[in-house]
Write a structure and sequence with these properties.
The protein is an alpha+beta fold and 392 residues long. Helix content is 27%, strand content 18%. It contains ten helices and 14 strands. The protein is elongated.
C-alpha cells in the first residue's frame, strides 16, 4: 500500500508518521494522542495545502484523509504537514459529530459574537467520501477531476472556522467552481461576509463574521440548497480570475520555473475541469525577471503581467526596470570622448582651399512671383495706429 510521509506538530513538539489513502482519521488521532499526549476531543487536526502553504484545511472525517492523500499525489508532493489546533467550545459539538460520522442537523440557533442568535439551515449531506463523484448534469459516466471533487465538501456546515477572510473567499471560489454556480456579495467588509447565489430565485446563502476581533472567520448561517440547477459547466467559470489562477499554479512554479502557459491551461483543465483563456495564464518570475509573454525579456521593462505580480507583492515597479534605462548608465556611456572611426580604405578628404563651392541651381517657379516676403517670427507685418492718440 502506497504511503506518504507526514509530520505532525503541536506547539514545540512534533513526530513523523506514514499516512496511506485507506487510513482512517480515528487511527491518526490515536497515534497523535499517544505520541504528543493531546486530547483530540478538544483539538482539531489540519494540514497545509501543497499548492499554497499559507492555507490550512481541516480533517473532519475519513473522506478528508483520502482527499488529503490524493491532493498531495496530484500535486506531486510526498510530504504532508499536519498541525494541531485548539477548537472553540461552540465548535466542539460539530467537531465531535463529524468525527463519529453523525450527520444529524446542527442546532438551529448559533450564538454570534454580539450575544444574539442566527437562524441556520441543516448542513448539506456530504458524500461518504470527499472524492465521491459529483454529478453536474453531464451524465453518470462523467468523471469530475480530483481537485474539483475535493472542493465540493469544503463549505459544509455552520460553525466552520477559517483562519482568515482571504481563505474563506478562496474556499468559496473553489466551492462555486466545484458545484458549478456563481455567487455575489451582499456584505463584504472587515468583520462580516455575506454572499448568495447569483440566481435571484435560488435560496443558497452564506453569512460569516469575524471571531472576537481576530483574523479568523466563522460561518454563522448557511442555506446550502440550490434550486438554480448549477448550470455553469466546465467550459469556463466567472470566478476564475487571474488571482485565482496565480494561487493555483504558484506551488508548481516553485518546482518548475519553466512552467509554460499551455501547461497551466492543461493542468487546470485536468484538475478542476474548467477552461481558462490564454491571457490569464502568464508565468512571471520576479527573481529571473522573465514573463512567458516574452515582453519583459525583450525590452527589459516589466510587462503588464509582471506589474500585476509586483503589485501583489506590494513592491515598486521601478525596482525591476533594467539599469540600462537609468541616467547613471546614460551619463557613463557618454562620459568619454567618442573618436571618429578612421577610414583606411578611402582617400584623404580635400582641404577647404581646394573646394569650390558653386551657387545653387535656381529655377523660375510657375505663376507670378511674390512681392511680399514672408516675415520672420515676431516681425510686425502691419503697423496699427490708434485712432485716439495717433500712436503706433
Amino acid at each position: 500500500m502506497e504511503q506518504l510521509l507526514g509530520r505532525c506538530s503541536f506547539e514545540d513538539q512534533s513526530f513523523v508518521l506514514f499516512i496511506g489513502r485507506d487510513a482512517d482519521l480515528a487511527s491518526i488521532h490515536s497515534r497523535v494522542s499517544q505520541r504528543l499526549g493531546v486530547n483530540m476531543q478538544e483539538n482539531i487536526l489540519k494540514y497545509r495545502l501543497p499548492m499554497d502553504t499559507d492555507v490550512e484545511q481541516v480533517l473532519l472525517d475519513d473522506g478528508d484523509v483520502q482527499a488529503m492523500f490524493d491532493l498531495h499525489k496530484c500535486q506531486g508532493t510526498s510530504f504532508i504537514n499536519l498541525q494541531i489546533h485548539a477548537v472553540e467550545t461552540r465548535c466542539l459539538s460539530t467537531h465531535a459529530s463529524r468525527q463519529s460520522g453523525d450527520r444529524q442537523p446542527l442546532d438551529r440557533s448559533t450564538s454570534n459574537t454580539q450575544g444574539g442568535s442566527l437562524e441556520t439551515t441543516e448542513p448539506i449531506q456530504l458524500p461518504r467520501s470527499s472524492l465521491e463523484l459529483y454529478d453536474r448534469g453531464q451524465g453518470a459516466e462523467s468523471v469530475v477531476p480530483v481537485l474539483t471533487q475535493y472542493s465540493v465538501s469544503r463549505i459544509h456546515s455552520v460553525g466552520q472556522v477559517f483562519i482568515s477572510k482571504e481563505l474563506l473567499q478562496m474556499e468559496l471560489t473553489n466551492y462555486a467552481i466545484a458545484r458549478g454556480f456563481n455567487w455575489k456579495y451582499l456584505k463584504n467588509d472587515s468583520v462580516r461576509l455575506t454572499v448568495r447565489c447569483n440566481v435571484s430565485v435560488c435560496p443558497w446563502r452564506l453569512h460569516a463574521s469575524v471571531i472576537r476581533g481576530g483574523p479568523q472567520f466563522a460561518i454563522k448561517s448557511l442555506n446550502n440548497k440550490h434550486t438554480c440547477g448549477c448550470d455553469i459547466m466546465s467550459d469556463g467559470h466567472p470566478r476564475t480570475s487571474k488571482k485565482w489562477v496565480g494561487n493555483v499554479v504558484k506551488g508548481k512554479l516553485v518546482d518548475k520555473p519553466t512552467y509554460r502557459a499551455s501547461e497551466m491551461m492543461s493542468d487546470i483543465r485536468q484538475e478542476y475541469g474548467i477552461c481558462i483563456p490564454y491571457h490569464q495564464t502568464y508565468a512571471v518570475d520576479l527573481h529571473l525577471q522573465t514573463c512567458s509573454c516574452g515582453h519583459w525579456q525583450l525590452v527589459k521593462i516589466p510587462c503588464k503581467h509582471a506589474c500585476a505580480a509586483i503589485g501583489s507583492n506590494k513592491e515598486a515597479v521601478t525596482q525591476y526596470v533594467s539599469a540600462f534605462y537609468s541616467t547613471d548608465v546614460y551619463r557613463a556611456a557618454y562620459e568619454r570622448n567618442i573618436q571618429p572611426i578612421p577610414t583606411f580604405d578611402m582617400s584623404d578628404p580635400p582641404q577647404p582651399s581646394e573646394v569650390l563651392i558653386k551657387p545653387p541651381t535656381t529655377k523660375r517657379l510657375p505663376r507670378r512671383p511674390r512681392k511680399r516676403r514672408i516675415h520672420s517670427r515676431g516681425e510686425v507685418d502691419h503697423a496699427y495706429i490708434c485712432s485716439r492718440c495717433k500712436q503706433i
